[in-house]
Design brief:
59% helix; 9 helices; three-stranded parallel sheet; mainly alpha; 193 residues
Length: 193
Amino acid sequence: DESRFKSGFRWVIGAVLALPWLVVICWMPFQNSASADARPAGIINSYSDEVVKSIGDRTWVVTDGSVDWHLMISAGKLGKNLRLLNLKEAGNEQYMRYIAGFTDSVRLKNIARIGMLQFIQELMESDPEIDRKLAVMSLPDLWIGAGYTIVPERLVFLGTKKPASVVPSEMLSRHEKFWSEMIRNINRYSGKS
């Protein structure tokens, strides 16, 4: 009889002590739902996917750093390996060492220690095929400084040494189609029809 009482008492005490924890565990998902809800990031993820598609086969991308992590995730999803050159990290010595690791060129490695803009300038001047390897999201004037003509390509800027090869009517048609689709995506994510 006494063992039954002890057993029942332990069960009641255990339930009383466990009940508050059970309530907290059940309540937490609702308490944190607003901060844990990733749906608002859908438009940024969509944007990043489109940036990665816009760069084509290029691997170097000059950015302002605002969506770099999203770009890396999008690139991974699309099977691309990107080398992001974040202009906001230009003064970060560790970041510039990281950037220097992107190249085998001793000259580029040393210039990376001087600064980001110098690195990008040397990269653009030393590689005659850089127009097939680099896209610029921020600071498209980098192309002009290297002797290229800026060519907008959806969400990035490309460069060309042959501006006559750019057909404005084709570019306009591509951009109209692209931006129509982007506006639909924005409206879908913002809840507008």
